[in-house]
Design brief:
Structural class: alpha/beta
Largest sheet: 8 strands, mixed
Radius of gyration: 22 Å
Helix content: 40-55%
Distance between the termini: 34 Å
Number of helices: 17
Length: 472
């Protein structure tokens, strides 16, 4: 295959599972997430994306998208079960999210994780031209930087962790903790969402590996690995333009009418995941209805919960619990034609998301732990009217930037209820002042600022960063 000066390595290719009859592919854009972050910047330089295309068996040939070449990595059913569903999402994911669910450890999962990471490293080595920049993404591929450095020491290697990185007392539970740390330290630059995560990583490098470490640098043999916080963001200009489109404005008007034109619309958009605080949010809302603080005919809640990792038992159980609770609330408090909660599990395209953001008087983003949460940033970008209140968990990475949001501890049910009522009863001036301040911040720290900050630090010549994220 042709080689590239920029190689992005991620668990998934950013494409739909199906390819159109004419062979065309489109970017797979889910609410927030990795693809939403990287899509706007990858069209600005020759690049290749290395990842799994979905499905098992030999790697399919995937067409280029917007000039970005797709290099598919094959995974077997066993790989998907033991690497993706097992070590990545039943061991690392819960541990990195404060052990909200108990992490599970199996030796065969670790063996699969090593095997798949080696395969990704080899694919990246093949795709990268001499001296290229390789940007490895997220917890699925923590061994890739070290494996890739052994294969291609000429490369500039970056690693970015999109999820939280846990404190030492949690990470120390991992049976293969040293190997994971050494894998990440194969990079020239290890990036995190928050400074606390970089601090946790430095502490562990010192404690587990006995390496000289500060919160900015870690000495590894004859190299210095730099670490730091680079909060990921979104393409604010793209979401603003989408939100202003006449068809989106019209769609928003129809959506509000379909909901009965209520006084208040509360919106939540999540992946179906136990870290998102969906159950706590539903319980708080139902108690507010039960005690009369919220009237169903005046206030409508829309909960979008897109299914995720459906073969993992914990997620199957969660979906059953959520759907049972939604059914209970609608059965107890709803009326014919007036459900208490509009519950949707299908994914939405960008146009529909923008329309939903426009009608949401309250955007409830209340995860128990989240690396960033780009849905919160998309909502702020879409509110071109400076309206709408963002109810935001203190434990989302976005809370460090959106200090003007209505911040809440989602573990505190009474506090969640009080803060939701505060947002519902806030004056238009208070809501507008908060939203305007958050929009000003996001306009400065958008996706291009994130790309420039990270890639300038990684590619010290500056040439790649200039092509990817030119000054506005």
């Amino acid at each position: 295959m042709r080689q590239s000066p920029l190689v992005v390595v991620a668990n998934r290719l950013p494409v739909d599972d199906g390819v159109a009859l004419d062979g065309a592919c489109e970017w797979r854009r889910s609410p927030g997430g990795l693809v939403g972050a990287l899509h706007p910047i990858l069209k600005k330089t020759p690049a290749v994306w290395v990842g799994w295309a979905g499905g098992s068996g030999p790697a399919p040939a995937v067409p280029d998208i917007d000039g970005v070449r797709m290099h598919a990595v094959p995974l077997s059913d066993e790989d998907m079960r033991d690497h993706y569903e097992g070590f990545a999402n039943a061991t690392l994911w819960p541990l990195y999210h404060d052990a909200v669910e108990q992490p599970v450890y199996h030796r065969r999962w670790w063996e699969a994780y090593q095997r798949v990471n080696q395969r990704f490293a080899e694919a990246a080595a093949e795709a990268a031209e001499p001296g290229a920049v390789v940007w490895v993404q997220d917890y699925h591929l923590q061994l890739v930087p070290g494996l890739l450095r052994a294969l291609r020491p000429d490369l500039r290697i970056g690693f970015f962790l999109h999820v939280p990185f846990p404190p030492p007392e949690l990470f120390m539970q991992l049976p293969r903790r040293a190997e994971l740390l050494l894998g990440m330290l194969g990079a020239d630059l290890v990036g995190f969402q928050r400074a606390q995560a970089a601090h946790n990583f430095a502490q562990l490098a010192s404690k587990v590996l006995k390496l000289p470490a500060t919160d900015r640098r870690i000495a590894v043999d004859d190299r210095v690995v730099r670490i730091g916080a680079f909060p990921v963001s979104i393409d604010m200009a793209e979401m603003e333009a989408l939100s202003r489109r006449p068809d989106v404005v019209q769609r928003a008007r129809r959506l509000r009418g379909d909901l009965g034109d209520p006084q208040h619309v509360i919106l939540s958009i999540d992946r179906m995941d136990y870290t998102k605080g969906i159950e706590q949010r539903l319980k708080a809302y139902s108690e507010l209805i039960a005690n009369g603080h919220i009237k169903v005919r005046d206030t409508v809640m829309v909960q979008v919960a897109v299914p995720s990792r459906e073969r993992v038992e914990q997620y199957q159980v969660l979906r059953e619990r959520v759907e049972r609770e939604v059914g209970r609330i609608n059965g107890e408090f709803g009326r014919v034609g007036e459900p208490a909660i509009h519950y949707l599990t299908q994914p939405f395209d960008r146009t529909e998301l923008a329309a939903l953001y426009r009608i949401a008087d309250i955007m409830a983003v209340t995860p128990l732990r989240d690396g960033m949460n780009l849905v919160a940033k998309e909502y702020v970008a879409a509110r071109v009217d400076n309206g709408g209140a963002l109810l935001l968990s203190e434990f989302a990475g976005a809370a460090a930037e959106f200090t003007q949001a209505y911040l809440v501890n989602p573990h505190d049910l009474e506090g969640l209820k009080l803060t939701l009522m505060h947002a519902l009863q806030a004056t238009p001036a208070d809501v507008s002042d908060r939203m305007r301040s958050m929009r000003d911040h996001l306009r400065t720290y958008d996706i291009r600022a994130w790309a420039r900050a990270y890639l300038t630090s990684l590619d010290q010549t500056g040439a790649l960063a200039d092509r990817l994220a030119p000054a506005s």
